[in-house]
Amino acid sequence: MTRVVLVLLACLVARDAAAHGLDPALLSLRAVGPGVFDVTWHVSALRLPGADVRPELPAHCRRTSQDDAQTDGDRVTLRWTVDCGAQGLAGDTITVRDLGVAKINALVRIERPGGTAIQAVLSPRAPSFTVPERPSLWTVVHDYVVLGIEHILSGPDHLLFVLGLMLLVPTTKLLVQTITAFTLGHSITLSAAALGLAHVPSRPVEVLIAASVLLLATELARDGGGRSLLRRFPWVIAIAFGLLHGFGFAGALAEAGLPAEDVPLALASFNGGIELGQLAFVGTVLVVRTVLSGWIPQRSARPVVYAMGIMAAFWCFERIAAALS
């Protein structure tokens, strides 16, 4: 089990090392007049060699202003205005180039007059989409489920917390209860934040999420056996820190936004995608452990716990420095 988890940890470290450079791009078009749109393009300043990620609007859309560029950390924001004529964008195709080369997705949001919006998630396999008059319900479900799955699987801190819960819990029944408690916790705060009922600054939340992994690693490193409160009632820490992790998930959803006409459906789909990704991770760990348990000797999990603690401590210092900068 130890070797298996160490391999998973190595994969998470590699994923985290490139996380900032692989953030999704965001293309927003806000209608400000008949056929006229203010365009905002957010993209990472870090890029893989050969990647030139940029949006391509329909040929009949002409720029009517110069680019306004701003840099915030490792993100670049460009703003300009386009005039697409009386026909607007309905029925036209929008493309984001080089998503495959950059290995990222792009979120596209089109705000129409009256406040309604159309959204899509573009990927290396599907870098273009045709703007409909109104998004279908299936499109909303598909796009937000995919977004939720990709967010949880690209978040090493969230996955390490789940892995720590799996190491903390000795029985299958208690594991089900603990994972359910974590799911309940982050679903509550994700929904509250997405609906505007609660707001917590993102940087302190990211620090506390890293601290939650560090606390869990500290508990696992203790020699208290099953006598501590956290080991006897792991669902307590699971639901408590699940509430915290939910605000972290809400940050990703805020980047994409919610379609004004289908807020409950999009929110439920995003949350469902997170749960599917989480279950896939838990299932993978359990299956790999079962398959390899016959020829991998049982050893102490202490190296795994120490690796978790070191990574979590690094994230704490890194995120505190970012919050204070």
Describe the structure.
The protein has 325 residues and is α+β, with helices and mostly antiparallel strands. The chain has 10 helices and 10 strands. It has helices at 2-17, 99-102, 137-153, 156-168, 172-194, 202-221, 229-232, 234-256, 263-292, 302-324, and strands at residues 25-33, 36-44, 54-56, 62-63, 68-72, 75-83, 93-97, 106-111, 117-122, 128-130. The strands form 2 sheets. Strands 1, 2, 4, 5, 6, 8 and 9 form a 7-stranded mixed beta sheet that branches. A 3-stranded antiparallel beta sheet has the order 3-7-10, with no helix packed on it. Strand 5 and strand 6 (75-83) form a beta hairpin. The model is unreliable at 1-22 (pLDDT under 50).
Overview features:
10 helices; 18% strand; alpha+beta; elongated; 3-stranded antiparallel beta sheet; disordered N terminus; 325 residues; 7-stranded mixed beta sheet
